[in-house]
């Protein structure tokens, strides 16, 4: 159980790194690292909760989240110039904001009776916290490519929540979630590329006009 809670803590740390990095390429590397931690969490949960379906979940998560999604995002950075794009929120504010999110989510989860071990509630609070961390990433970043990572963080959080609360779901459910996330990232990267070609910048503040 200590290993599971430790890995959950690493998820928070890697989320901070994903948001705080100045370039999307570095964020993609830390996202791959976070996804690897998520895979290890699935493996630990599979043994702890006797949910053998999670072993298959870990394989699917490794292929899509650790390999494919970061590769797509890193490839996208090769065609986009991020050097002139402001970074957005000062990284100093991320630590207190993240701490507040984790405490708030744990406070929400604590009084709820759930069909899982009491000691796994911190992990559930971390999974719920990733929805808010993803939102923080989206609204705090001026780099529109980095805003895509907000969705990725939210998706990792939903994946972990599902593993905790519906770990007996068939592998087809996990495959559907993973492929949906993969195609969503592909579509968002294509949109970012279209925007960059149109306005020659990744700065979200430059998106001030809508033309039909």
UniProtKB/TrEMBL annotation:
Major localization listed first in the record, in broad terms:
membrane
Instruction: Provide the topology term for how it sits in the membrane.
Output: Multi-pass membrane protein
- Is Signal one of the keywords UniProt gives this record? no
Q: Where in the cell is it found?
A: Cell membrane
Q: Which residues cross the membrane?
A: 6-21, 28-48, 54-76, 88-109, 121-139, 172-192
Q: For this UniProt entry, what's an example GO CC term?
A: plasma membrane
Enumerate the UniProt keywords alphabetically: Cell membrane, Membrane, Transmembrane, Transmembrane helix
**Which InterPro entries does the record match to this protein?**
HyfE-like, NUOK/Mnh_C1-like
**Listed PANTHER family:** HYDROGENASE-4 COMPONENT E (PTHR38601:SF1)
Question: What is the name listed in the Swiss-Prot or TrEMBL entry for this protein?
Answer: Hydrogenase 4 membrane subunit
As recorded in Swiss-Prot or TrEMBL, the protein's gene is named hyfE
């Amino acid at each position: 159980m200590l290993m599971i809670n430790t890995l959950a803590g690493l998820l928070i740390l890697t989320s901070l790194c994903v948001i705080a990095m100045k370039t999307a390429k570095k964020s993609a590397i830390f996202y791959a690292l976070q996804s690897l931690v998520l895979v290890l969490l699935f493996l630990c949960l599979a043994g702890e909760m006797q949910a053998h379906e999670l072993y298959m979940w870990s394989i699917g998560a490794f292929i899509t989240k650790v390999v494919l999604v970061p590769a797509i995002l890193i490839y996208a950075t090769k065609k986009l110039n991020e050097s002139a794009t402001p970074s957005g929120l000062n990284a100093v504010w991320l630590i207190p904001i993240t701490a507040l999110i984790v405490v708030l989510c744990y406070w929400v989860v604590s009084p709820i009776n759930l069909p899982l071990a009491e000691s796994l509630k911190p992990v559930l609070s971390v999974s719920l916290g990733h929805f808010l961390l993803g939102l923080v990433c989206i609204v705090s970043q001026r780099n529109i490519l980095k805003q895509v990572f907000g969705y990725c963080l939210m998706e990792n959080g939903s994946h972990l929540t599902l593993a905790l609360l519906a770990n007996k779901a068939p592998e087809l459910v996990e495959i559907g979630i993973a492929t949906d996330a993969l195609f969503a990232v592909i579509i968002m990267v294509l949109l970012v590329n279209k925007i960059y070609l149109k306005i020659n910048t990744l700065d979200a503040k430059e998106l001030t006009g809508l033309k039909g």
